[in-house]
Amino acid sequence: MSSEAAFIDSLRALATDSAARGLLDDAAALTVGGETLVLTHDMIAEGVHYLPDDPPADVAWKLVAVNLSDLAAKGARPIGALLGFSLGEESWDRAFAEGLGPALAAFGMPLLGGDTVALPAGAPRVLGLTALGRAGPIVPSRAGAVPGDRLWVSGSIGDAGAGLKLLREGKDEPAALIERYRNPRPRLQAGQRLAGLVSAMMDVSDGLLIDAARLAAASRCGSAIRLDWLPLSTALLDLGGDDRATRLAAASAGDDYELLFAAPPDRTSAIEALADELGLPLSTIGQCEPGTGLRLLDGDMPVPLPERLGFEHG
Amino acid sequence: MSSEAAFIDSLRALATDSAARGLLDDAAALTVGGETLVLTHDMIAEGVHYLPDDPPADVAWKLVAVNLSDLAAKGARPIGALLGFSLGEESWDRAFAEGLGPALAAFGMPLLGGDTVALPAGAPRVLGLTALGRAGPIVPSRAGAVPGDRLWVSGSIGDAGAGLKLLREGKDEPAALIERYRNPRPRLQAGQRLAGLVSAMMDVSDGLLIDAARLAAASRCGSAIRLDWLPLSTALLDLGGDDRATRLAAASAGDDYELLFAAPPDRTSAIEALADELGLPLSTIGQCEPGTGLRLLDGDMPVPLPERLGFEHG
Lengths: 314, 314
Hints:
The structure is a homodimer.
Chain A: H1 3-12, E1 28-32, E2 35-45, H2 56-73, E3 77-87, H3 90-106, E4 111-118, E5 126-134, E6 150-154, H4 159-168, H5 175-182, H6 188-194, E7 200-204, H7 208-218, E8 222-226, H8 234-240, H9 244-251, E9 258-263, H10 268-278, E10 282-289, E11 294-298, E12 301-303
Parallel strand pairs in A: 3-4, 8-11
Antiparallel strand pairs in A: 1-2, 2-5, 3-5, 6-9, 6-10, 7-9, 8-10, 11-12
Helix pairs in contact in A: 2-3, 2-6, 4-5, 6-10
């Protein structure tokens, strides 16, 4: 067990309230005055979750988006945020604040409070956001999938990972891929509409394969993913070519902030109708199976799992 | 204006929801399903808010306590916390988790969620906690005091500041002062009971004088503080002697996590009865006045304000 896994295990012993969902979900779900609040806190650190020369307004956007993606996966509507901000170079701070406004406004989320700290000189910034949302009547968890359910994903997979790789190589094109890395779009509306249709839902943040394995493990079932069914964007296919290496890289890259969900086969037409209505692709990528573990297929051919399914850190 | 003040000003423009209280209060107050939630997020950073060789369990305690002190000042009962944790040296992490359990349990606050991040090697840790509380029928703000109100403070002032000074000098006695620095006790019960009696309330975190100036400014009145009325502990008086220097240091030291509040004179007997009932000193330290600004008195003698009223950072 990694030291991070051991640490999270020791926290789990403290998270005995049912609202904590055993620290196994994207967010907590707390009942207050007859309503259900969805609560999440994600941090991003300079040099780990964003690049030091990423534009500060994009970092603000990402901080908001990664937290809202957790709300989206629970079908919640944003109601407010608390910011934890490490102060640093003044013009960077200013540009961050200038970017935070439009990011919050884009999702109708008011800033409710927070804290600023001045770190010792040279320390990498650590930024945190707590996002609160109001849930609908059903708050999907990661744990409700059953064998026979289809697995679905929203949008396209692998674009952000390709964008990050390009930036690390000093390239800034194709812009569509860079944009997906810097300005992820949390699928709030889709999440709200899907909440009543799915048996389990989470967001894809660490990589499709590792997150699919987590959903299946939480649901105590196995899963089979069809590499050839993964929705890849034209920009990604143009860059990498439509081969197995491109598909494996996309499936394990992370930073997608798409929705991954399981649903019984009889929900298929309702999900397809929703995709049409929202103008957002919702694609079947496999299914839940009896047993445990993750199987990967390309057509009917079994494919060995890559050594790395995604980011192991949470 | 400092760059931090400018940054917070720019955030204030985004905090237009009334629940944010203009970012001028200790916490946000959000109405959900007919109840009022109190929400706060405070961060502590290694080398800034705690010493690198402070015991990890005490750091966990402090992270919990500083956030609960904000809830106490709004009269709220804790209902849950989200943790933002920077991973580092494994045995430190383990000792932190072992201390977090008792700290949360001491205040009946379950852990609901959070996030862990691995920072680049050598980066100082940044720890954040979001605390949620359920408010009573009245949520005192900093802004309700009027001229003629008495100013009060709970417990004793200056102990934690003296404890920090001792630690920085390599001393670990008197234990009572070290303990006040490392294990502050948020005044939750007192805050809940005082909420209906006060005209304004906040916690003392940055220094009594600077925080009293903030309460008066938020209330658009002036204030006069009587140095000779400040409640100082026997341990502090034994260490420093009962002179003006000791009292000025205590009033500007910070880390007290006591309650500072204003109340009309006709509430005096109710407040004194509450102090007796709780076994917690509640001491008059001055009054609110017409006008603006802070006056300092020793008996009837005006005393010049010290150059530094407390910590300027939030």
